[in-house]
Amino acid sequence: MSLTELRIRKAKGTEKAYKLADGGGLFLLLKPNGSKLWQQKYRHLGKERLLSHGAYPDISLAKARQKREEARVLIADGSDPSQQKKLDKIASETQARTTFKLVAEEFLEDATARDLAPATMRKKQWYLMDLASPLHDRPIGEIKPPEVLYLLKSIEKSGRRETAKKMRGALSGVFRLAILTLRAETDPTAAIKGALVPPRVTSRAAITDETLFGALLRDFEDFTGYPIIVDAMKFQILTMTRPGEVRGAQKQEFDLDNRVWEIPAERMKMRRPHRIPLSDQALAIVQDNWPEIEVIDLLFPSLISTRKWLSENAFNSALRRMGYEKDVVTSHGFRATASTILNNREFNPEVIEAALAHQEKNQIRRAYNRATYWDQRVKLMQDWADLVDKFRSG
Question: Are residues 35 and 55 both part of a single domain?
Fold first, then answer.
């Protein structure tokens, strides 16, 4: 028998919960505390499920029956009403956060939680909070491909092709988040793929001629600036590392007994730790610069403060003072110098790549290389250090 409003109002709670059926799977659950809850039984994919429609009298009998019929339509179409209810709840919760800027802020929060490199985070912040400001107040679901293309083309025409390309990737991340949270249906950056002019590929300036490289090493000896800068650059050359990895080198990263320098993942470009065998020459530089004072951690601290790194431009500024222009050599180019010379001398290319901490795309092969090439890398680093001495001596 179908329910009536009068019967529902007169129904009282008992010591045990009980149900009053209305038909079509809909029933009213009366709890001992007197509360009355609308629920509906249904089957989906062969399994019995339960759907809640709310409490009486907030949800009247007529409203509960309406919800029952809406659920039955979904079931007939092969959908699960419970799942649809969850999706509707998510949609209502996110409806107030629909502008591009608000979604971009959520995207940046997620990126921060993934512990991305600080430099990467600064770039994403710049792309989305500064360069993408024309999109900030736009409802993200209404942004169309021509609007995004116009923004990226304006950046591209200013000569920043690489910026436009990378910004497109950052924008795509925001739109994908909007799609997942039901605030947009499409990613407009997908439609403009290929519409941007490819960036010009420029390599880091590097000296790859052995004779000219030897001359540079001799010029190190005549440098009259802060001596620790020259030691740091020599150490970078001998270890084939990046300038920032050397500038941030700390005592706790070194195992002097086993002659190993392990750079933690958070300071590596690829966000994974990198172990470097120390040659005799590299070990000597570490020992010469080892801070005797317990509280000093940095191996190559700034002249201003022993707690601060050398400035980001310290190495390149020293090279300019030596008379080398930026189109001739940069500190980032020292890795290219080592790679080119060692490859030209027919050292094992895979051992060289492992020494440079280049990311092997195949995960299994990457693990194999890290485990297998250690002994070869120990020999390679000593051979490279001996070659550096040979080049310096002319």
Answer: yes
